Amino acid sequence: MMPRLAAAVLPLALGGCGGNWGWHVVNPADPRGQANLRFMVDGLWATVSLSLAAMAVSLALGLVVALAGFARARPLRWFNRCWVELFRAVPILVMILWVFYGLPVVLDIRIGIFAAAVLAIAVCDSAFEAEILRAGIQSIERGQHEAAQALGLTSWQRYRHVILPQAIRRVLPPIGNQLVYVVKMSSLASVIGYQELTRRANELVVTVFRPLEIYTILVLEYLVLILLISWGVRRLERRMGADQRQGMPG
């Protein structure tokens, strides 16, 4: 129903634009417009896969760095502070370029475009994830730690079964915000040739010479994607909140 409605309304809206605008290049009622739109939308999976992979790696790295900050060993705490301060200061675009062009030279390895983009975005974002997770862990009442310790749980078991599940519930909103941030930053992978939404839009612009029309569609693509992610995060928050209330004694 919605695609049909869009196909009926969009040509009318775009057709009413005057001046030198060429909205026919993205008109779904025009064969050329259909081909251009299909070419752009085909980059959606690349954007989503890059964002999800980078977010997964970022959360794993962030958790390790956050836990290092609670260690008794001073070198681990120093590792935490150095990691956070270093990678919060490096722009993601610079990190993508360095990982793709510099890391193979330093380590004498070959690295693909996708792997380089995932690694660069994940490393930079992990500094923020580490701080989010640290704040979540610190927000857990001391009594929870003491109760878990009284049950004879090891340090790892306390974090795995008691502390982290509660902390993740509390930091889910900022983690959701970081996912939105990662999706937007994935557009920077276009500079090394990764065929995500922005790269495909850039290639189309140099083909049809209509930057206003193409980039307008690109904005709409990101808008829809971000709105869907935000909706999913809010729904997950409500579900986890409901599960937590159901687990509370009456």
From TrEMBL:
The keyword Transmembrane applies. Pfam families: BPD_transp_1. It comes from the Bacteria. It is found in: Cell inner membrane; Cell membrane. The chain crosses the membrane at residues 44-70, 82-103, 214-233. Residues 44-230 form the ABC transmembrane type-1 domain. Keywords: Amino-acid transport, Cell membrane, Membrane, Transmembrane, Transmembrane helix, Transport. SUPFAM superfamilies: MetI-like (SSF161098). Belongs to the binding-protein-dependent transport system permease family. HisMQ subfamily. Part of the binding-protein-dependent transport system for glutamine; probably responsible for the translocation of the substrate across the membrane. This is Amino acid ABC transporter permease.
